[in-house]
Design a protein that fits this description.
Number of helices of chain B: 11
CATH superfamily of chain A: MetI-like
CATH architecture of the largest domain in chain B: Orthogonal Bundle
Number of helices of chain A: 14
Membrane topology (chain A): Multi-pass membrane protein
Helix content of chain A: over 70%
Shape of chain B: globular
CATH superfamily of the largest domain in chain B: MetI-like
Pfam family, one (chain A): BPD_transp_1
Oligomer: heterodimer
Number of strands of chain B: 0
Number of domains of chain A: 1
Structural class of chain B: mainly alpha
Subcellular location (chain A): Cell membrane
Order of helices and strands of chain A: HEEHHHHHHHHHHHHH
Radius of gyration of chain A: 24 Å
Largest interface: A-B, 85 and 84 residues
Strand order of the largest sheet of chain A: 1-2
Organism (chain A): Sulfitobacter alexandrii
Helix content of chain B: over 70%
CATH class of the largest domain in chain B: Mainly Alpha
CATH architecture of chain A: Orthogonal Bundle
Distance between the termini of chain B: 37 Å
Largest sheet of chain B: none
CATH topology of the largest domain in chain B: MetI-like fold
Main location (chain A): membrane
Chain lengths: 291, 273
């Protein structure tokens, strides 16, 4: 009896507040827009049976017809992919440096990487607004060096979005790579060097392949949330920045087209399922390899 | 001691400069006397004063803390139960679905979670306010709690619990007296994680908060959309300092406990049998 309650309580909670809402989104993506509150039809008040009886694919057809949505999905994928790559290139040397640091420093370095996790995401994005704006510190700095005469337009462009994503998600990349590098057996590199590899070759042929799992985990941890990102494109990106999280938000709050917003969400999720499944497989493989 | 190569020193220096400089600049400029955020006009604490007098921010901060305390406490309860079920529950109907629902919210984009919860609340006619934000925050943060707690439960030696049962404890007593103290650090860090997640959340709160309740991130977001403001710099500085002090204290305490535990072990080894 106690066991039943132990299972039932969290189970029921997740069913009611995770699965059911999701089914509702799915259903509303197949509903008609209506000038009413709530702005779609048929609603739950017409009866659950009624609500689930009518299916209408016009919202999805609408998504394929208006090239705004195509562009938004594609540019989200591009931004997420490129910023994952940049984060990897920035994060790997840091993780490597941490793993090679003297033993007694590592705990402190690790804490310094984790500390930004606990600091507000919104504030970390906001910090860049003051730096990147036309009168901002970066432009002031570059002008004072005489490198530029006109301020660079960085804020409100995609470049600022890349900077924001790399900055805020960097710890997600560093930690798994550090974990992989930390476990690495130093003698393998020495063996490679004894056998005639140069330092760089040993790094490329031994260290990188052995940290593969960390690289994969870190890349997914950056790519998946970056794809649905809303805060970064709306604060750092300009009107030309198309990201699907932002489109969904505007569709819902500004256009009040709930059925289309729901359809946007359903398609975003379908796109996300591929990397999520790949990620889970990788995690499983890793767990099995460790046992 | 092994010396670090210049390459490692440089990458660490640049890496940590990149991570911390933006926040340090923000903190410095929160003491700027000028209303223009980018022009330095001398040291002043004026914006902190204006912030303290700004009731909209204070109200929002109060709502945020209330929501965070309630949702992280609920999430810790539900998340610990869920972790226990996942690790010790054995087989039961719909186990795959259950573990799927635990892990899925971790990767679900916030816009989708927020949208779906809002549609549910409207569907069942629940008025949006503190309650709906708490429900929403509890749902996603309980998943984080259960991941943290279950990783501790997995490595936990089950025979300790069995010994307690053999010695006459009831199942609940064994949990309360043996299991819970051992997993306590994970439960506490789960609570802290849930608490910060709730404090930090903008997107889900924006969907589930009604006009009657606004959280601090929502307030900050609507203010900074209009541009950089010295008041927000002051507010950010306060928030960053609280977190820094909290995390540093926590890690010092953990370190001291670890050192003490090690000393105890050594003393025990040295003690005559």
């Amino acid at each position: 009896m106690r066991r039943f309650a132990l299972i039932a309580v969290p189970y029921a909670w997740l069913l009611a507040l995770f699965l059911v809402p999701f089914i509702i989104v799915f259903k509303i993506s197949l509903s008609d827009l209506a000038l009413a509150i709530p702005p779609y039809t048929p609603t739950m008040r017409d009866g659950i049976g009624e609500m689930f009886a009518a299916f209408d694919f016009e919202n999805f057809i609408f998504l394929t017809e208006d090239d705004l949505y195509w562009k938004a999905y594609l540019s989200s994928l591009q931004i997420a992919f490129l910023s994952t790559l940049i984060t990897l290139m920035v994060g790997y040397p840091i993780a490597y440096g941490m793993a090679k640091a003297p033993e007694e420093w590592r705990a402190t370095l690790m804490m310094l990487v984790i500390l930004p996790f606990w600091t507000s995401f919104l504030i970390r994005v906001y910090a860049w607004m003051g730096i990147l704006s036309n009168e901002g510190l970066l432009n002031q700095f570059l002008t004072s060096l005489g490198l530029i005469s006109e301020p660079l337009q960085i804020l409100n462009t995609n470049t600022a979005v890349y900077i924001g994503i790399v900055y805020t998600y960097l710890p997600f990349m560093i930690l798994p790579i550090y974990a992989a590098l930390d476990r690495l057996d130093e003698s393998l590199n020495e063996a490679a060097e004894d056998l005639g590899c140069s330092r760089l070759q040993a790094f490329w042929l031994v260290t990188v392949p052995l940290s593969r799992n960390g690289i994969i985990a870190g890349s997914f941890l950056v790519f998946i949330p970056a794809l649905g990102e809303f805060v970064i494109p709306s604060l750092l990106g300009g009107s030309g920045t198309l990201m699907i999280g932002k489109v969904l938000w505007e569709e819902f709050f500004n256009n009040r087209d709930w059925p289309v917003a729901s359809a946007v969400a359903v398609v975003l999720l379908l796109i996300l399922i591929i990397p999520i499944v790949l990620f889970q497989r990788n995690q499983q493989k890793q767990a099995e390899a460790e046992q | 001691m092994k010396r670090m190569s210049w390459f490692n020193v440089t990458s660490l220096t640049f890496g940590f400069a990149f991570l911390y400089l933006p926040m340090i600049i923000l903190i410095i400029y929160s003491f700027n006397a000028s209303k223009l955020v980018t022009v330095w006009a001398g040291f002043s604490t004026r914006w902190y004063g204006e912030l303290v007098r700004n009731e909209a921010f204070l109200d929002a901060a109060w709502v945020t803390i209330k929501v965070a305390v309630m949702s992280s406490t609920l999430a810790t309860l539900l998340g610990t139960m869920a972790a226990y079920v996942l690790v010790r529950g054995g087989r039961f109907m719909g186990r795959t679905l259950f573990s799927g629902m635990i892990y899925a919210p971790l990767v679900m984009p916030e816009v989708i979670t927020g949208l779906s919860l809002l549609l549910l609340f409207i569907g069942i006619g629940l008025d949006r306010g503190v309650l709906t934000i708490v429900l929403a925050h509890t749902t996603f943060s309980m998943c984080y709690v259960s991941v943290v707690v279950s990783s501790r439960l997995v490595t936990f030696d089950r025979s300790l619990e069995e010994a307690a049962l053999d010695l006459g404890c009831s199942g609940w007593d064994a949990f309360r007296l043996v299991t819970l103290p051992i997993i306590a650090p994970a439960v506490i860090s789960g609570w802290l994680l849930a608490f910060t997640l709730s404090l930090d959340d903008l997107v889900i709160a924006s969907f589930t908060a009604g006009p009657s309740a606004t959280t601090l991130p929502i307030k900050i977001f609507s203010a900074v959309r209009l541009g950089v403001s010295p008041e927000i710099n002051a507010l950010s500085t306060i928030m960053i300092s609280i977190v820094a002090v909290g995390v540093i204290t926590a890690s010092l305490v953990t370190k001291r406990n670890a050192v003490r535990a090690e000393a105890d072990m050594r003393a025990a080894e040295r003690a005559p049998a």
